[in-house]
Model the fold of this input.
Amino acid sequence: MGVSAVLLQGLLLGSLYGLAACGLSFVFGVMTIINLAHAEFIMFGAYTTFFMAVILKMNALLTIPFSMVLVGIFAIFIYLVLIKRVASENQLVSLILTYAISAFLWNFAQVAFSSTFRSVPFNLGSILVFGSNFPVNKIISFLIIVFLIISLHFFLKWTDIGKAIRAVAQNSKIASICGINVQQVRMIGFSIGGALAGVAGGLIAIQWSVFPLMGQDLILKCFAIVAIGGLGSVPGALLGGIILGIAEALGTSYWDSTMANVIAPLLLILTFLFLPQGLFGLKERVD
Amino acid sequence: MESDRNHSESVLEVKDLFKSFGSLWAINNLSISIEQGSITGLIGPNGAGKTTLFNVIVGEMKPDKGQIFYRDKQITSLKPFQIARLGLGRTYQLIRIFSQMTVLENLLAAANTNKKAGIDKAIELLAKFDLIRYAHDYASQLSLGQQKVLSILRILMLDADLLLLDELAAGVNEEEQKKLLDFIRQLCEHEAKTAFIIEHDMDVISGYCSKVICLNFGEKIAEGSFEEIKGNKNVVDAYFGT
Amino acid sequence: MTENVTEINTSTKISQAAKRVSFAGGLLFFILYVILPFIGSAYLVNLLLIFFIYVAYSEGWNIMSGLTGYVNFGYSIFSGVSGYASAILIIDLGIYWPIAWIAGAVFSIIVALLLGGIMLRLRGSYFAIGMLALLLGVKLLFASKYLAPVTRGGYGFPFIEPVSQTTMYYAAGIVTMFSIFIAYKIITSPFGTRLISIREDEEAAGSLGINATKEKISAFAISAFIGGIAGSIHVAFSNYLEPDTAFSTQWTILPIVMVLLGGQGTVWGPVIGAIILTFIEEIFWSYFPGSYMMIYALVMIFLVIWMPKGIIESLKDKEVLPRTRAI
Done:
C-alpha cells in the first residue's frame, strides 16, 4: 500500500477514534469527571445499532440516530442515579465509580449477549483512491463524523444551552452566580457525551465488529487521544484521534497490528509524563 | 558577646529573587536577610507575594532567577522534603493538618526516628500545650487554635530551627494568640530558633517582631523596625492606595 | 499524669480481654486451617485456597493503594509477571517450586522499582489511568511474538506444576498470614503513618520532610512482592497460562472491591472483603455462573457512593470497634 493510501486509511480510522474520544473529552471539560465507562456507552450504541439493523432489519445508517438518543438517555439516567452523588468528591472517587460502572456494563453484555463477535451488514462497495480500495461505508462514516463535529461546534457557539455549557466548563462557580443551573447543565453535558458515544458505537458497528469487550480495547485509545489533544478540548480530541489513527495505520502497514496496538498506551504514558496538558489543554491538571 | 555573634549570623539569605506566573511578576528582584534568633515580620497587602515567597523558599515553587541560602548552604534547587530536613519548617495559611489522622499520628509523620523515640518526643511537645488528652483524637476534632498549635508542633518534631509561619494569628482568640506567640518568642530567645512570620495583625507585628519587611507587588518597599515602618509613606500607600 | 503517659505509649487501645479473645480465635482458626485437609472435603480445601489467594492479593493492593491513595488499576501486572516467571522457572528450568514462586515475586519487585520511578511521578487520576495503560501494554508485550520464545505468545500454554492441591493450600495459608502480618507491621509503623499522610496531603507531607517518592516506591515494591506471590500461586492453581487471564482487568477489580468493602488502609479490611466476596462468588457461581462479576461491580458501585469508608472504618466510627490502626 502506498504511503498516501496508508495516510488516508489513518485519517478515516482516526476520525472514528476522534469521535469516540470526543465525548470523553467533552464530559471532562464540562464537569471534570473522567468517565471510565465511556467506552461501554460506545458499546451500548454499537449493540443498539446491531439489534436494530439485524433484528429489526433497519437500514444501518438509520439506526445511528436511535443509538445516539438511546445512549444519551441512558447517560442521563446514570448521571442522575449515580454520578451526581459523587460529583462533589475528589476526582478519584468518580474514577473508581465509573470504573465499576464500566465493569458492570461489559460483564452484563457478556452475560446478556454472549461473547460472540457480531457484525452489521452495511456494504456499499468500495472506491479506488491512491491505488487502494476503500470501503464506501468508511468514507460515509468520515463524512458523518465531520458533520457531527461541526454541528457540535456551532451548537456550543450559538445556542443558549451551548453557551451555558461553555460557561460551566470555564468556571462553574461564576456560571452559577450568573443564574445558570449548573446541575442541569452538567446533566445535559453528560448526556451529550453519551450521545456522541452512541453515534461512535453505531459507526463502529458498521465498520468493525460488536462484542462485549470492545470497550476495554477502546477506552485506552480514547484516553491516549484525550491526553494528546488535551482534556476538555473537542477539536483536540479529533486531532488526537487522527494522529493516533495515522500512527496505527503506519504501524500496521510497516510493522504488525499487535505492535500497532501498543502505540496507544505508549503514547498515553509518554504524554502524561511529558505533556500533561496535551496540545490544546484547556483545563488545569486536576488531581 | 554570645548573643551578638548569634544575631549577626544570617540564617536565611534571599538574593535577587524573581518569580513569575505567566506575565505576572509575583516576586520582583527581592533580597532579604533573616538573622539568627530573630522574629521577623513580613507584611504587605493581599497579593503582594508574601505566601509566594514562602513557597519559593521551601522549594514548593521554583524561582525564575535568584538564589536562596540557608546557613550559607544553597537550597534554591532542593526539593521541599530536603529543605524541611535541613531545618526549615513552614505552616500554611489555610491549615493543612492531616484531618483523618490522630493528633499523635500527625506528629509521628514528621518524626525521622523509630516509633518509641517519636512518641516520646511527641508527648513532650503535646504536654507543653496541654494537648496530651487529645493525642488519639482525629486532628479534625481540635479547635482552630489547637490545630494551629498542632501545625507548629509538627514542624518542631522535625527539629526545624527556622520557622516560616503564615498568618498564625488569624482566626484565633486573643488568649490563644498570646500563648502561641509567647511560645514562638520563647523558642527564639532560648532554644536557638528563628521565626519569619507573615501577619496582617499589626498588634502582633509590633509586639513580637524585631524587624519588619514590607512587600508590595513582589518588591520590598520597606524594611526596619515596626516604628520605622509604621510611618513609611510607601507602606501606607500600599495598604490604603494613593 | 503517669497514667496518661502509659496510655499514650501504646498505639493500640484494645483491652486485655479483647486481646485474649482474638488470640483464642486466631488459635482456633489456625488449628482448623492445619487439620482441614484431613477432615474436610477437597471442595472445601479448594475454596479456602482461593480465599487465601484473594486475601493475600488484596492485602498487597491495600498496602499501596489503600494507604497512599494512589489507585493502582494495573495491579495485575505484578501477579501476571510473577506468575509467568515462576511457571517458566518450574517448567523450563526445573526449579523447585517454592524458590520459583519467590523468585517470581522478586522479579515483580524489580519490575515495580523500574516502573515505579516513572509512573509514580504521576498524580491521582493520571497515575490510575497510566497504570491501566501499562497493564494493557504489558499484556500485549507478553502476547507478542517478541517474547513468544519465552512466554509462548498470545495463546498461552497448559501446564501442571508439580505441587499437590494440599501443599498449595498450606503454602497459600502461610503466604496469607505473612501478608496480613506485613500489612499490620506497616500500618502501625511510622512508615505507615507517612504513607497515610501522603494520601491526606502529599504536599504538606513534603513540607514535613517526608520523601514522598521514596515512600511511594517502597510501598509499590512491597505491594508488588505480595501480589507477585499471590500471582504465582494462582497460576499454579489454574494450570493454564495466557496473557489474557494473567493480566486481566477482572483480576484487577477483585482486590479493589474487597479492599473498598472491608476498608481501605485497614489491616483486616481485605480479609473481611475477601470473606464476603468469596462467599458471594460461591453462591452466584452455582446459580448464575458468569454473573458474579456483575455483582462485584454492583457492590463496588454501592460502596463508592454509600459506604466509601468500608466496613471496618464504619464500625470504628460507630465505636463498635476500637479506634486503632492495628485492626
Q: What stands out?
A: Chain C touches chain B through 25 residues (CB under 8 Å). Confidence is low (pLDDT under 50) at residues 1-12 of chain C. Residues 39-248 of chain C form one domain. The beta strands of chain C are 157-158, 240-241.
